[in-house]
Amino acid sequence: MHIVDGALSNPVVIGGAIAAAGGIAVGLRSLDLDRIPTAGVLSAAFFVASLIHVPIGPSSVHLILNGMAGLLLGWAAFPALFVGLLLQAVFFGFGGLTVLGINTLNIALPAVVAGMLFGHLIARGTPLHGAIWGGIGGAFAIAATTGMVAVSLALSGEEFLPAAKLVFFAHIPVMVIEAVLTGFAVLLARKVKPELFIKGVAT
Fold first, then answer.
1. If you ran DSSP here, which 8-state letter would residue 124 be given?
2. If we measure between CA atoms, which residue out of 202, 27, 22 comes closest to residue 116?
3. 56 sits in which H/E element
4. In whole angstroms, what is the distance from residue 195 CA to residue 166 CA?
5. Distance from first CA to last CA of the chain, Å, rounded?
6. Could you give phi then psi for residue 76, rounded to 5 degrees?
């Protein structure tokens, strides 16, 4: 999911940076003191999970867990995921600094949308029903992220179209895995601390 430096056109990079900055600003305003520990844990989980890459052709696949971040944090997923991406770029060279904005946008915006669409459904009903919606939300976030990465590549030139298609299809197994992981995580959280989701979808 990490687009590397130099792969995208300047308009895409600049537009992504501006949009990501806006998302981070909104996220910081919605990040109250009670949710800072949750944001830290999810940022660390994203950092560790996406370090393990499985190469597939010119791309690679890895877990992202952005759906869970969006379901719990809402707009605050932007700064949480940004920190994880920044640390990966600085310490491991994943992605790059010039594409930090577009990478943040591609991963965090689907997380926020997943929270908006499925957060309220998770917060009500039984824990099992919440887990099912959580799994759907986790898969949706990955599908939307791959779609945004594909669009970013496609907008940068026709030569990237084959890679754009590969990115989406290569991540279908990841969608299934993330759906299962997110579903179980939601099930546990609904039983132990259900108020997490009520707060997460409030902003």
1. S
2. 202
3. strand 54-56
4. 39
5. 26
6. -65, -10
The amino acid that residue 178 corresponds to is: E
AA letter at 9: S
**Which mean pLDDT values do the consecutive 10-residue runs of the chain (203 residues) have?**
78 94 95 89 87 62 87 94 92 84 95 93 89 95 90 78 72 87 92 73 48
Q: Which residues contact 95 (CB under 8 A, 6 or more apart)?
A: 2, 3, 4, 5, 85, 88, 89, 103
DSSP of 163-192 = HHHHHHHHTHHHHHHHHHHHHHHHHHHHHH
Interatomic CA distance for residues 40 and 73, integer angstroms: 11
Angle made by CA atoms 53, 2, 36, in degrees to the nearest 5: 95
Distance CA 134, CA 178 (A): 10
Cβ-contact 118, 136 below 8 angstroms: yes
Q: What is the largest CA-CA distance in the chain?
A: 49
Phi, psi dihedral angles at 21 (to 5 degrees): -60, -40
Report which of 83, 86, 75 is spatially closest to residue 110, judged by C-alpha positions.
75
Place of tokens 């600085």: 90
Separation of CA 187 from chain center: 20
What does the alpha-carbon distance between residue 68 and residue 151 come to, in Å, rounded to a whole number?
23
